[in-house]
Specification:
Largest sheet: 6 strands, mixed
Order of helices and strands: EEEHEEHEHHHEHEHEEHHH
Helix content: 25-40%
Radius of gyration: 18 Å
Number of helices: 10
Shape: globular
Distance between the termini: 36 Å
């Protein structure tokens, strides 16, 4: 079964047509990177999946069900889809441990002991086992974002969404977050990622979606997209970003 499908999705902000008839699919195990110039509708698109943004027309299907159907409970939907934001969105008044066990104990019915054991495992996975008792304010931006990824994984979601997860980080912290995401891709987790990190996109993606002015102009494997993009706008975009500067610098 297709993990995620957009069918003729449109959205307006007043007179501004933000999404223009998006048709696309994400299959289980795929890592799909969404790229394009600022203001092209990338973040809006992935925010529609968990109903953080409402659509005006079309359908979005997650595991075969319309996410906007009346019978779909929004909290249950969001419990099945991990979302990592630009700005971490950790609970600042809770420790790292408390951030990671809150969702599993309340939404999944997990015992506290099981949730704590899982939190320890996930923090070790993102290289932060030693920060389990820390408060978010005492972590660097890169550490906070890695905790945010661990917190999303704690809900055991079949799909993870990332909305420019490195855009709020200092350059030296970007790679520590991307390294965690590389590992998740290697484990076969299904991910939809909005990012400007073209080297990362070329390295880990199954497919690249290129958007501009609310349209999905290209959907191609990374080797095709970066070597011979079909759409003239994608060609100009890659020229502007220097093809894949992050990869060249690696």
């Amino acid at each position: 079964m297709t993990m995620l499908a957009f069918e003729n999705v449109h959205k307006h902000y007043g007179e501004h047509h933000v999404l223009r008839g998006i048709d696309a699919r994400v299959e289980p195990g795929e890592v799909v990177v969404v790229c394009g110039p600022s203001g092209s509708g990338k973040s809006t698109l992935i925010r529609t999946v968990t109903r953080l943004e409402a659509i005006g027309q079309g359908r979005i299907l997650f595991e075969g069900r319309d996410v906007n159907a009346r019978e779909v409970k929004i909290n249950q939907l969001r419990a099945r889809i991990g979302f990592v934001f630009q700005s971490f969105n950790l609970f600042q008044n809770l420790s790292v441990r408390q951030n990671l066990i809150l969702g599993p104990t309340r939404a999944l019915g997990m015992s506290r002991d099981e949730a704590v054991a899982q939190a320890e495992t996930l923090l070790a996975k993102v290289g932060l086992a030693h920060k389990i008792d820390a408060m978010p304010a005492n972590l660097s931006g890169g550490q906070q974002q890695r905790v945010a990824i661990a917190r999303a994984l704690a809900m055991r979601p079949p799909l993870m969404l990332f909305d420019e997860p490195t855009s709020a980080l200092d350059p030296e912290m970007v790679q520590e977050v991307l390294q965690v995401m590389r590992a998740l891709a290697g484990e076969g987790l299904t991910m939809l990622i909005v990012t400007h990190e073209m080297g990362f996109a070329r390295e880990v993606s199954s497919r690249v979606w290129f958007m501009d002015q609310g349209q999905l102009l290209e959907d191609a494997p990374p080797e095709q997209f970066f070597a011979r993009p079909a759409h003239p706008r994608a060609q100009r975009f890659l020229q502007d970003v220097g093809r894949a500067p992050s990869l060249a610098a690696a």
